[in-house]
Amino acid sequence: MHRYNRTDSVWADAYATPIDAHGVDFVSDRAKVLPAFIQYDLHDGAICRIAPKANDGPPEPPAAFGDDWSTPLEVEDVRKLKTYFDRVQHLRHSLGYVNLRVGGRDHVIDIEPRHKRGITFATPRQSLMSAIEWQAFDDILIGNFCKTTLHGDWGGRVGNDALYPEFSPFVTKFGDNGCAWSPDELRAYFAEYMRRGFMAFGPGPADQAMEKELRPYL
Questions:
Q1: N or C of the chain: less Cβ packing under 10 Å?
Q2: How many structural domains are present in the chain?
């Protein structure tokens, strides 16, 4: 249900899943796939289609969204970025540094120098600082205009697989969304999930990797 309508992210449209494809090969005796863009009445099962207008106009330049790839970071921006990443204490277990390449200039934020791997995010200033202000770094990752480079040994993992589970969940989900940055905050966060019965890990590799990463906080 995504449409990438920036000229620097429109390349991702070729990989977007068409709405009609979401139900392909879905088989279940207990559930069914509902159509997209609906209001669903849990009382009587009635479906009302919203039918939004298709976002099918021509791609727009980054400037239409306030971004200019040539705009550099300001001194205060760098301070805010360092504060933002410093508080994600779990990153110190596996990441050496985060580099923000903005306006053609690199700004390296040391996380734990003994680790010989890092990440470079090349992205426009406006979107980056808005994501930091609103605690929505995931928007930078899923917008598909940010260029991510991995440095060092990531165990053969590439793309988003490399950022999971050590980076993305702890920064974007547990941190930005859950406001759990320190070990104590993470333990309280997951204790509440377990109290509600929402903590379960499947046998798949991704679930098992996540369970291993969370083990110190459970």
A1: N
A2: 2
Q: What is the distance, to the nearest Å, from the Cα of residue 168 to the centroid of all Cα atoms in its chain?
A: 6
Q: Are residues 139 and 196 in the same domain?
A: yes
CA distance 104 to 123: 9
Q: Per residue in 46-101, pLDDT tens?
A: 999 998 998 888 999 999 999 999 999 999 999 999 999 999 999 999 999 999 99
Question: Contact, 128 vs 140, CB < 8 A?
Answer: yes
Q: State the SS3 of 116-156.
A: CCEEEEECCHHHHHHHHHCCCHHHHHHCCCCEEEEECCCCC
Over residues 176-197, the pLDDT tens digits come to 999 999 999 999 999 998 888 8
Same domain, 141 and 208: yes
Residue-range definition of the domain harbouring residue 43? 1-60
Question: Is residue 190 located within the same domain as residue 106?
Answer: yes
